[in-house]
Each structure stands twice: as C-alpha cells, then as structure tokens.
Fold:
Amino acid sequence: MPIYNAPLMKIDPKETRRYAGLMKAENFEESRIEEACEEALLLAMPKGIWEIYDYDCNTQRIATDPPFTILGEKIGGHLAGCDKVILLAATVGEDIEETVTKRFQKGDYAFSVLLDAAATTAVEQIADAMEKAIRPKAAAKGYDMRWRFSPGYGDWPLEQQPDLVRLSHAEKIDISLSESLMLMPRKSITAIIGLYKKDITTTKAPAHTPKGCAACDKLDCPSRRA
Amino acid sequence: MIHIFDGAMGTMLQAEGLASGACPESMNIEHPDIVQKVHEAYIEAGSTIIETNTFGGSALKLAHYGLADRMEEINIAAVNIAKKAAGGKAKVAGSMGPTGRFIKPLGDLDFEEAYQVFHEQAAALAKGGADYIIIETCIDLQEMRAALLAAKDACDLPVICQLSYSEDGRTVTGTDPQSAAVTLSAMGADIIGVNCSLGPEQLVPIVRTLAENCDVPISVQPNAGMPYLENGETKFPMGPEDFGTWGAKLVEAGATFLGGCCGTTPAHITALVKALKGISEPERKKEARPLILSSRSKTVAIDKTLPTRLIGERINPTGRKKLAAEIREGSLLSVKKEAVNQVKAGAHLLDVNMGVGGIDQSAAMKRAVMEIAQITDAPLAIDTGDAKALEAGLRAYPGRALINSVTAETSRLKEFLPLAKKYGAAILCLPITDDGVPKTAEERIKVMGTILKAAREQGLRDGDFLLDSLVMTVSADANACHEVLATLKGYRKEYGYPSTMGLSNISFGLPNRPLINSTFFAMCLAAGLDAPIMNPYDEAMQNALMASAALLGKDPNGLAFSKNEANLSVPKKAAEAKEITTDVLSAIKLAVIDGEKDSIAELVEKAIQEGHDTNEITEKSLTAAMTDIGEDFGAGRMFLPQVLLSAETMREAFNKLKELLPAQNTADKGTFVIATVKGDVHDLGKNITGALLANSGFKLIDLGKDVDSQEIVKAAIENSADIVGLCALMTTTMVQIDKVIKELHEAGSKAKVMVGGAALTQEYADAAGADAYAADGVKAVELAKAMLENN
Structure:
C-alpha cells in the first residue's frame, strides 16, 4: 500500500477556470484565478495512497477477502480485459475547505468559489501524479492503464464508496466517510484504475468507454469540456 | 578504461527455476549454485563488473518474505557467490535497490529509517567483500540521498548511484539528470548513472546531461527496449546486436561503465563488448567547476557570466513579530507564502531562517525545508548559526543547498565545514573572525583566504564557494561603501569565485533608505556582485537591477529592458481609459453587473448627493442589474463567479445605502430560511444561493449544513418564514428533503418550499411535494421573487 504525497508546485489555472464554470466567460480576470490557485497551493496538504489487486473482468470481482464485486455496467465495460486493478485515494486535506467557508462568511463569495475550484484541480493533479508514479511499475510488467473511474461516474453506485475507502486504505491518509457516504475532507477522491496487458498476439482491442466529461450524462454541467 | 557490467538477473533466475512471486534473494542461501551460474554466464560474456543478487536485499524488502532477520546472511552469501564466480577476473558490485516506499513528506517512510536499512545492507555487502556499492533504479532523489549517505557512512567502497528516468527525462518524482548530477556528485558519489525504465536510445541524452554536470565517471544500464506481451509472456524488443550498436553512442555521450537492465542477457553483453572493442574513453570537458545549487527538480548556477541571481531574504523571523509568533505556534503558512511569493517576484534562491527563540531549531528547520521543497523548486539556503539545525536542514533537503554562513570563527569552521562536505552543500563564506568584523577590504580578502584554506582542507573545492563582502553601515563608517566595492573587486581578482551580500545594512540610520539601497546596489553590481541577498518585492531594487543589467551587458543592448512595460513612456494601460457613463443610476447598474466592488460606494454616494432615494437606487439600479444578470446567466453569457462578484458589489451598495440613509428601509421582500439537510456537509452551493438572496432584498436565515429536520421546522415556524430553501447534494441525502417537507406540513407551516442541489431534479422536487426546484442560485432568486409576488 504505497503512500505518495506528490509535490504540488503549481495548481493549473486553466483547469481551475473550467471547474469554476468559467470556460465560456470572456473578460474574467486571470489574476483572480491565479490568486485562488496560489492560496490553494499554500493550504493544500496533498496525500495519496493506493493498493493493487487481482481482478476478474468477467465477474467484475476484485480478489480480496471477502471478494468484492463492482456494480455497474459502465465500469464493467471500462474494466473489460483488465486482470488487475489499482484502488487509489487522494486528498488535499481540510484546510482549504475551511478557508473556503471562512472566506465566504467574510463576504468574498467569488474568491471562495474559485478557491473551491482550485482545490478540485489540486486533487486531480495529485491523482495524476500518482498515476505517473504507478505507470512505469506497471509498464515494467507489460501493463497499460485505463483512465481512472470513481464511484458516482456513470452507473457505478455511490453505495460502493465504503468498499473503495476500505480497499484503497484511504483512512491511512486521514480520509473518512460520513454516514451519507461523503468523503471527508470533502476535497478527496477515490478511484479505480484498470491494468490490462497489451498483448500483441490478441487483436481484440479492449473495450474503451469515452473518457472524462464525454463519459458523463450531465450534459448541462458548467464545467463540462467542450 | 571502459567497464562492462552484467545484464538482467531476475529473468535469468526465473529461467533457472525461480518461482514467480518468490524472493529472488533467497536463492543466495537456497540455491547458490544457480546464482553462480548466472554470474558465470555474464563473466563468460565479458562483464568486468558483476552485480550481486541483492537488489531487494534490504531488510524492508526482505520483510515481505519474512526474511528480514536474515538480511546480513543473504547479502554476505550473495557477495561470496559473486566473488567465487568472478575468480578475480571481474569486480563485484553490491547491489541495493529502492525500498518501494516514498520518503517523507512524499511518502510515509522516515528518512532515518531508510538510511538505517541502507546502512545495514551496505555494511553487510562490504563485510562480504564487495568492491563497489551500486544503488540503482531509484526514482526519488531523496531515497538516493539516504542510500548514498548510508553507504558512505557504512564503508569506504566507491559508490555508484543510478536513478531511473521516465520518458519525459525526469524521475517519477520530478528530478532531472542535471539536478541529480549536481546533488549526488557534491555528496561524494563516485560514479553517477542511469538504469532501467528506458531503452538505450532514450538514455543517450540523459547520459550526456549527467556527463556535462559533474566530473565523476558515468554509468548506464538500459533495458532492451520497452517491454510488450506476447502469448502472455513479457518480452523485450531489442536483440543483442541492436543493443550492442548503442554502446558506442553511449560512450560518446560520456559513459564509461556500461551494462544492461531488464530484458538483457549474456548475449546482449557479448554484443556490447564486441561493439565497444577499440572504442576509447570519451573526452570530458575540463572546465573549472561552476557553483550550481539544486532543488529536487531544478538547478541554479551562480557565475559572473550569468544574469544576477536573487536570494530571497524574507523567510526570516528576525524583527518580524507576526512571522516569529506564527513559527513559534507551529504554523508555516506565512513561511510558505513568502516562499511562493518571492519566487513569483523573481527570487532564484530562497534563504530559510527559523531563528525564533524558545523553539526546537532543528525540528523547525527540518519541517520548513521539507514543506518549502514541496511547493517550490527554487534551491534553498539554510540560514542558521546552530550546527544541529544546519544538519537537520541539510539532511532533509532533497537537493544541493547553500549554507548561510561559514565564518572564520574557529567553532564555525570546525562544525560547519564537515557538514558541508558530507551533505554536498555549497558555503556562503563570511569574513568574520573570532575577533570580529575586519574593517578594510584588504583584511576581509585575507580572512576569506583563511576560510577557503580551511574549507579546502576539508575537501571542499571550486564550485563550493559564494563569497560575502560584508556590508557595514555607512552612517557609522564613512568608508563602508568603498570597502565593500574594493572587497568585491579584490575577491574577483584574488579568488574568482562568485559573490554575495546582504545589502540593506548599508542605509541603516539614514532617511530614504530605498534610494540609498538601490544606488548602492547598482554600484555593487558594477563591482562584481553576482547573487545579492535581498527583498525581491522591493521595487526600487528590482528597477536598479533591471537598469544595471542593461548597462553592464547582462541584458545585451537593453533588449529585455526595452520590452518591460514599466519602461515604456506611455504605459499601455492608459490607452484603454474607461468610458464614463453620465447617468449615475446607470453607472451603478453597470458597476454591479461588472462586479466593480471598489467603485460602487462612491457611485452610491454620488447618487444620493444628486437626490436619488433608497427606493429609486434599489429599483432602477440594483434590482435592474440583478434582472439583467439573471437573464445573462440564464442565457449562458454570464457565469457563477461573475454573478458572485456582482453580489459582492450589490452588498457594498446596500451597506452604503444603510450607512448614508439609515432611516430609509432597503426593500424587504420576505423571509427566507435556508439549510443544507441532515447528513450533507457540502454547503458552498447553499451559501451561494443564500448570498444572492440576501443581496436581493430577502431577509435570510441561514441554518448552515447538516441540519436536522426538526431544527428547520422550528426555525420556519418561529420566523414565520415565507420560503424554506432546502439543499441536498447527494443521492444519499436527498431523501431528507421528503422528510423535512412532511414535517413542515405536519407542523402547520405556511412556508413555500424551494429545493436544489446537484443530485436533485424537477421530477424529484415534484414527487417530494416541493413548491419549486431551483437549478442554481440565480434561478432561486428569480423563483423566490415570483413566489412572493403571486401571494
């Protein structure tokens, strides 16, 4: 169960702009976005952890004791052809969300929303860095990685969040789950990454679901990528 | 001389019967004959250095197989097997691989624990009689530092340090080959190199960069290309002949120790030996070693031929009560802020001083260094007079730091110089003796000679020194400036090393210090100052630097100077003067729409002076603005953060109205009780809606998040709420909405119910019996107004 708290040197203003729903906004000062990204950088306490498991894509079952079956057709399709999965958890800690609340109460509404968006960007960047750390180890064994998928995407029920928290050992990086299945701190994610072998002898291309926003049904989302 | 390592060990052992998933190192005690056979095959192929079968032989790794307590036995056995196989024909390198965990703060493994396991393993390998220690396949510079320090402390063998790089030319944790070469060579690595992850073609440029940035031999052990799968078996694409042909290119790039990693076999080594026959050692440039500092992922060189480097001085609690208090309380927020902001303002290096009384200096320095290194890639200067704090900082720093400072005082020389050598740090040399500060340039240059001599005796050399010319106060000593200038020139003439100084002391006790400081700065730059320690936020200093660079040829022909906006006679900003609307009510409306919070109070004041009353301003400016904003938002022309800036502006307008015309009521549109339901802790969406309502004339009662249904009902009744707004973000919490609506009805509340939140839909709202569903905060305001107008 490797722990990797990736260094976070800069939070991407472009992604922050997108998460703040400002992609189509003209004339929104870049300096406001940058200010939020810088504040988030100071407040973020990046943490990440993952664990690798054997996986049976026919039964959608992860080899743990007791075995854990992933529910949902989309995630099943996404992991088709994979014989190992990585369950990961990442967080930026509580300080950012506390500041988001505090600054909102102070009346800095817009800044709070931008800070919240920067925190979302930061969590994704941390998970990206974890993927970068995992990739060479997987590649050395001939594995390639599917893009990461989280409970709540597609038809993967949120009710499986407790199992993801357990199997990724998220509690070791101080992520917990509320009774209503919310990750605490809020700016945390759990996700699954499928590992498949790029066997040159098999011609059948593994089933790929559309990536990221394209996979999501919420068409009116203000952060949806064009 | 070209040295030839062996190739892969693990796959050879598997071919000889090692079960997949079994501990390869256990073969050293269970099947020494098989291990010996592999070694012999490589010696037969022409290897002149073979690696022991101990890549995973640290106690941490062996623990996975329950073999931690046999660590020493396994490692000694491995060396014995290799020596037996070599029979004096080849040297034996004791292999140490990574622990598989990241060092704090990147991971959960303590630096000292990593150091300890590497120390034990290196000691065992040395005890067995190895000729080299080879630390290989590390992806984190800090783990390599721990292993190198441990190996150096555990034995006297030459140490080979090989990191693994990804396709982007950096290790997984971001280290580039230049930073690695600078950091590891300064720490005393005897051979620096690269292995695994990539094929020989991709390693050529990495070998070249390593060779250009240090003067020790370079080693390289590529994979046989990138692995792929065939019939379920991992294979490597590069055959022996092809692999061998890369040998000459790797030597030409600077390598003299060559071998193979994953996918290579004795046949690959044979081909390599054959291809290298008659190839002579590469020419390495023999220039004087420059002063280069490094973080985990970036190097900064200081030299008279390079642009001036700024050392940011702001991470220093001396004379700054607030910062000192924060550090004392254990918060590093301001320290981190200073780090990021100084780099943004142009600092290339950051000085870190944690000199606060009454705290554990070592612990504070260690933590500051670790946390700053996580958020900025500017190399650090460890600024302390405490040898323990210095060592704590140097040990924790994943790069090559500068020590600030080493004086000619007996205790400093004795305590600091060995630490500089051990951790590969450069030293800032300050000409102060046990007797105090020498006054004249001549004396300072002489004292500097004493420091440099002592440093060289400890093994420090060219490229390790930054000379401080020591600035005294001109108000106390009329010659202070002259002596500094003469010292700078003397240093350059006598020693040729780059120079530094803390500038601001010169103006102490004088008025208009910025003018004195910046003028003095320009003089020093002309006299040869290379890396001032200064406040990078100081505009006068930055201007002096920019102008001096143009004048002194560091900014050739003033090109950068000419491009700087501040130097243009007509600043660009002036060209876009804002159109001024004549009608003040329209101006207020526009300011709200544009979110111009800073100008709104003035406009409201002007409107009142012109005789407009609260009602008129509210209706014609503020409400009108909100209507336009609602339309623009609905049509996708305006977006949430912009709406919120407008809300902030609106609030300022209302506040000003209340302040100037307290008797007149700002419109009261009704009472709105709002809450995020029980179990739900997301409250930003609810807060946004609340803020928009409150700034649209509603009396808002915000109950917060995770609110019990009974509490919501109670608040609705007690406040005679006109509307109750309920927010739920998750499918798991939206059922609470049904509950609250039911209980409101049971309690006889007349309030209308509006619901919203990411998981909710119109259908769900209808089924739950809500009066309205608001998809967003702007919609909520619109709906609330409509609901109450219809009443």
Remarks:
- The first helix of chain A runs from residue 13 to 19.
- The radius of gyration of chain A is 18 Å.
- Residues 13-212 of chain A form a domain with the NADH Oxidase fold (CATH 3.40.109.40).
